[in-house]
UniProtKB/TrEMBL annotation:
Ligase as UniProt keyword: no
A Pfam family reported for this protein in Swiss-Prot or TrEMBL: Pyr_redox_2
Name under which the protein is recorded: Pyruvate/2-oxoglutarate dehydrogenase complex dihydrolipoamide dehydrogenase (E3) component
Biological classification of the source: Bacteria, Pseudomonadati, Pseudomonadota, Alphaproteobacteria, Rhodobacterales
Residues that, per the record, bind FAD: K52, G116, T140, G141, S142, D302
Organism of provenance: Cereibacter ovatus
Binding site for NAD(+): G177, A178, G179, P180, V181, G182, I183, E184, G262
Superkingdom assignment: Bacteria
């Protein structure tokens, strides 16, 4: 058996693991990267990249149907579903070199393509190699959760790991789960010509602001997506030509079934107990510095048991690199934006309105800025949308946006919250006209309007100044 010594051993070549490996190697650490599956992990191969490519194709199809508002005759697009999947595959292939074994080896990382398992507190075995490292980083990601529903396993349902390889257009896609993945895939497939039914055990997008979710769901239902809320899937049957799901007291029949009911950390191959690493059903037990119960081992990304976002995994990488390479204190930020990439998009950062009310009580002010008041939105006939700004103590504490390009608009607010920027600074920004970003400036300015306009004291001061001026 080959014995390898390293400063850092990274287990998993998804977004978090790759960021750790690249950063550490380029700063002089001896790095070993262990990956038993595909380089790039879920994000590149079965998550962010293919889903956004599919959504882009669906948006192009929908654009052909939506020209009436501009005096353009609508047309029903002719959709070559297999060619759409070719676009998805090309997108993955175009990005793959950045995550490839060859690139990381060129950075000085030793890449081992095998599954790793701990054999002691300081050793990992990968095939016929034994790695002893000063520090380990668990970046094994997560996999789709399959609920314990009678008949589900035998129905061979699709998940995010298999749906992007499907080249036959579903005539009726049934989706179990109404989180971001389920809702994104529902809209994409509906726009690509499929009938779609979504089954939500409670309400759709339960972690997001109900007022904003209602705007999004109205669009999806208007496009023909059937969304059944408060109906837990109780049973699944395989039937000739497809499947049927019992939910809400009725059988829902479809040609294909997609399960988008959450994800579970992929730790089962790792034998963490042999290294003294505590784990739960959520993932590795870590502190705010991402260090596990074994002081030599960190966890990042989905394996760390928190929110499951590629950009969060990248942030985790920066946290552990700071600690491992420089011995500096570092902890995870609590300002993490999130986006559901539907049309309209749904974005959020900081506290939701419900969370802000619970924390700040009567000190909270909620400002609503509709997209209908934005000139760019009116010019593009995209006025369905709303920005909600939560303010306490003169500072923003949370922002939720539903509307066109909400994922781009949330960036300014992520900066404002992370930098503890005053609302007066946002209100004083000079922004290009006409842009959707002006919704931020207007929302911030609305905080000061009651104190400036119609205030008798302000009017009195203005009159005095005007009389004094030459």
């Amino acid at each position: 058996m080959e014995r390898i010594r390293a400063d850092i051993c990274v287990i998993g070549a998804g977004s978090g693991g790759l960021s750790v490996a690249a950063g550490a190697a380029q700063m002089g650490a001896r790095v070993v990267l262990v990956e038993g599956a595909e380089m790039g992990g879920d994000c590149l191969n079965a998550g962010c990249v293919p889903s956004k490519a599919l959504l882009a194709a669906a948006k192009a199809a929908q654009a052909m149907r939506g020209g009436a508002a501009f005096g353009i005759r609508p047309a029903e697009p002719e959709i070559d579903f297999a060619a759409v999947k070719d676009h998805v595959a090309r997108t993955i292939a175009a990005i793959a070199p950045h995550d490839s074994q060859e690139r990381f080896e060129s950075l000085g990382v030793r890449v081992l393509r095998d599954w790793g398992r701990f054999v002691s507190a300081g050793e990992l075995q990968a095939g016929d190699r034994l790695i002893r490292a000063r520090r380990f980083v668990i970046a094994t990601g997560s996999r789709p959760a399959l609920p314990d529903i009678p008949g589900l396993a035998s129905a061979n349902p699709l998940t995010n790991e298999t749906i992007f390889a499907l080249r036959e257009k579903p005539s009726h896609l049934v989706v179990i789960g109404a989180g971001p993945v389920g809702i994104e895939m529902a809209q994409a497939h509906r726009r690509l010509g499929c009938r779609v039914t979504v089954i939500a055990g409670a309400r759709a997008l339960p972690k997001d602001d109900p007022e904003l979710v209602a705007i999004l769901l109205a669009r999806l239902r208007g496009e023909g997506v059937e969304i059944v809320e408060g109906a837990r899937a109780e049973s699944v049957e395989t039937r000739p030509g497809g499947v049927a799901v019992l939910a809400g007291g009725r059988w829902i029949e479809g040609s294909h079934l997609l399960v988008a009911a959450g994800r579970v950390p992929a730790l089962d191959r790792l034998d963490p107990d042999r290294a003294g690493i505590a784990v739960t059903a959520r993932g590795v037990t870590v502190g705010p510095d991402l260090r596990s119960t074994n002081r030599r081992v960190y966890a990042v990304g989905d394996a760390a048991g928190g929110m499951q976002f590629t950009h969060l995994a990248g942030h985790h990488a920066s946290v552990v690199i700071r600690a491992m390479l420089f011995g500096l204190p570092s902890r995870v930020s609590d300002i993490i934006p999130r986006v559901t990439y539907t049309d309209p998009e749904l974005a959020h950062v900081g506290l939701t309105e419900a969370e802000a009310r619970a924390r700040h009580g009567d000190r909270l002010t909620v400002i609503r800025q509709p997209f209908a008041g934005n000139d760019r939105a009116m010019a593009e006939a995209r006025t369905e949308g709303l920005l909600k700004l939560m303010v306490a103590g003169g500072r923003p504490v949370g922002v939720s946006i539903v509307g066109d390009r909400a994922g781009e608009l949330i960036g300014l607010w992520a900066l404002a919250l992370a930098g503890r920027v005053k609302l007066s600074t946002v209100a004083g920004l000079v922004l290009p006209y006409p842009t959707l970003s002006e919704t931020a400036k207007r929302a911030a300015g609305a905080c000061f309007s009651p104190r400036l306009f119609g205030n008798p004291l302000v009017k009195g001061v203005v009159r005095l100044v005007q009389r004094a001026l030459p």
